[in-house]
Amino acid sequence: MNKDTIRTQNDTQKIKCVVWDLDNTLWDGVLLENDAVSLKKDVREIIKTLDERGILQSVASKNDYHSATDKLKEFGLLDYFLYPQIHWNSKVHSIEQIQTSINIGLDTIAFVDDQPFEREEVKHSLSNVLCIDAAEMNRILDMPEMNPRFITDESSIRRQLYLSDIKRQKIEEKFIGPQEDFLATLDMKLTIAPAQEEDLKRAEELTMRTHQLNTTGYTYSYDELDSFRKSTDHILLVAALDDRYGAYGKIGLVLIHCLEDVWTLKLLLMSCRVMSRGIGSIMINYIRKEAQKRGVRLQAEMITTDRNRMMYMTYKFSGFKEVKQSDNFTLFENDTANIPDYPDYVKLKCT
Q1: DSSP 29
Q2: Structural domain for 77, as ranges
Q3: For residue 116, what is the domain's CATH number?
Q4: Mean pLDDT of the region 218-230
Q5: How many domains, the chain?
Q6: Distance CA 20, CA 78 (A)
Q7: How confident is the model at residue 212 (pLDDT cuts 50, 70, 90)?
């Protein structure tokens, strides 16, 4: 592909989570001084609109947990906030906890607070976090960082998808036994299929949003992906996952350049929400089996970033060996002679 058409993730960075302070930010007044606080003007519409755009939200507030959550529940807003951090620890600590729980980069988080001290402390310790003065919250919806190019089926229900993940995590924490035994209880169904036109918005979104579990860090536009979909020498695959607790949505993307005697994996990525489900290895083994059927060699490109070390290890564990290396670029090749069976805990459907 022409390098001029390739963009890295940092060129079009978007906010994935907005973290709100409460006192004199989300509402007027200090809750512990007066229970009769009132919501700031337009804040409900801002929260609702961000949610519809697929932007997650949380809370970092120095407050009494029960009083604050009761007030958020009274306002009908509590369910909008994932992993709320309401305690007396620093806002820096709270944002780090939220970032770890959601498993996103700090540079995809925005923090809204009325206090200059709190914003400066966060900016000093977490320089990649976008800090916003609560007095300017009315510009949030117009900020480029808050406006994804597409609103996909997944983005419009992203919060619900994460809430389902939280439910799964709580069940897993209580499970006693090997992880594979727990995974077997999920009744997972993985679908791998050629991308259709209706998949392309989500496919572009995946390349824009996926940093950690992305083998190259490349982003591709809708039009570029459509050209790959129609190309006779490319295969563009989309993976979707469901289990007994609901849908994960479209969680994986594969781009293969196909020559007569060799296939080259140009891109392999998957949502961080399936990181612990072994989906990466299953997708790779599916591709290995397909290459084996066609009697072609299988190679894979890897561009190492500061976040995607896990994908390097995924390739290594799947039997890929380096055949060429230059700076942060690695070309792997795979021996497709001995490919393990798919695990019993996932039902694979290929179309």
Answers
A1: S
A2: 3-146
A3: 3.40.50.1000
A4: 94
A5: 2
A6: 12
A7: confident
Burial degree of 125 (CB within 10 A; 0-12, 13-18, 19+): middle
152 within a domain of the structure (yes/no): no
- Give φ, ψ of 293 to 5 degrees: -60, -40
User: Considering the entire predicted model, what is its pTM?
Assistant: 0.80
* Distance from C-alpha of 197 to C-alpha of 139, rounded to nearest angstrom: 34
| Phi, psi (degrees; rounded to nearest 5) at 231 | -70, 145
Phi, psi of 308 (to 5 degrees): -105, 30
Residues 6+ apart with CB under 8 A from 206: 250, 252, 253, 269, 271
Q: Is 97 exposed, middle or buried (0-12, 13-18, 19+ CB in 10 A)?
A: middle
Q: Which of 146, 163, 187 is the last residue of a domain?
A: 146
54: left (phi over 0), alpha (psi -120 to 50) or beta: left
Q: Residues 88, 60: contact at Cβ < 8 Å? A: no
Which is nearest to 319 in space by CA: 296, 294, 287?
287
Cα-based angle 125, 129, 134 (whole degrees, multiple of 5) = 105
Place of tokens 């290594």: 316
Do 185 and 49 share a domain, yes or no?
no
The rounded radius of gyration (Å) of the Cα atoms in the chain is 22
List for the chain the helix, strand, coil content (%; round to 5). Answer: 40, 30, 30
Confidence label for 10 from pLDDT (cuts 50, 70 and 90): very low
Residues in contact with 35: Cβ distance below 8 Å, sequence separation at least 6, in sequence order: 67, 71
Q: For every residue of 39-62, which 3-state class applies, written as one string?
A: ECCCHHHHHHHHHHCCCEEEEEEE
